[in-house]
Amino acid sequence: MTSKFNEIAAQRRSIYALGENVRQTPEEIFNLVKTTVRNSPSAFNSQTVRAVVLFGDQSDRVWDIVENTLQKIVKEPAAFEKTKAKIATFRAGFGTILYLTDTEIVHNLEKQFPSYADNFQPWSEQAIGGAQQAVWTALAEQGIGASLQHYNPLIDDAIHEAFDLPTTWQLRAEMPFGSIEQPAGNKEYLPEDQVFKLIQ
Questions:
Q1: Does the pLDDT at position 2 exceed 90?
Q2: pLDDT computed for residue 142 by the predictor
Q3: Is residue 198 part of a domain?
Q4: Rounded Cα distance, 17 and 36, in Å
Q5: pLDDT, tens only, 95-142
Q6: Structural domain that includes position 129
Q7: Would you state the pLDDT for residue 63?
Q8: CA 141 to CA 145: how far, in whole Å?
């Protein structure tokens, strides 16, 4: 049995050598992200995922914030130079997507459905993971590379202030994206018998 979906999913890799040589316009990419997130599932159709898509200088601001924040934490100069070089690869891309969870919706659901209260936070994590996977794959289908980064919660306050985001939106990840200047290497997989079980 063949699957076009899995052919496209296999194109989704962590791409760290990013560039700005993207044929799509910012508006086209923004609309792709919007449509993909809207079509991603969430428990109780809660739609807790928020996505902020930044281009140009606004995208660079994200990585300036990351760099400035880590400079205060990474005290060893040689170690910080490595960190700075890594951040530069994200800044070199065409744009950045911030993924956030609307915690107000999560807390309201906890109150409305107390029997399920302990589940709404992990369910929101499942929702944002599904949305990230879907957007990442949709970008890959368009020939756009990306990776998923997690500098939250270190940068949360600065990001909210820089982009005037609601305080109820909790930052969960950052996705730099752009042209693929160097493809990903070979991917290693665990043995199938450690991962899958067929029961008939």
A1: no
A2: 98
A3: no
A4: 24
A5: 999 999 999 999 999 999 999 999 999 999 999 999 999 999 999 999
A6: 15-184
A7: 98
A8: 9
The single-letter code of the amino acid at 79 is: A
Does residue 150 form part of some domain? yes
DSSP characters over 158-200: HHHHHHT--TTEEEEEEEEEEEEEE---PPP---GGGT-----
Q: pLDDT tens, 8-62?
A: 999 999 999 999 999 999 999 999 999 999 999 999 999 999 999 999 999 999 9
Put simply, whether the predicted model's pTM sits higher than 0.85 gets the answer yes
Q: Which two tokens stand for residue 145?
A: 């590379």
SS3 assignment, position 101: strand
SS3 assignment, position 150: coil
The residues with which 99 forms a beta bridge, in sequence order, are 51, 173
Query: Using CA atoms, how far apart are residues 41 and 52, in angstroms rounded to an integer?
Result: 18
Residue 114 is assigned to a structural domain of this protein: yes
Structure tokens that stand for 73 in this block: 């934490």
Asked if 52 and 128 touch (Cβ cutoff 8 Å), the reply is no
* Buried/exposed code over 154-169 (b: 16+ C-beta within 10 A; e: otherwise): bbbebbbeeeebeeeb
Show the tokens assigned to 179: 């042209």
Residue 42 lies in a domain: yes
Identify whether the C-beta of residue 176 lies closer than 8 Å to the C-beta of residue 99: no
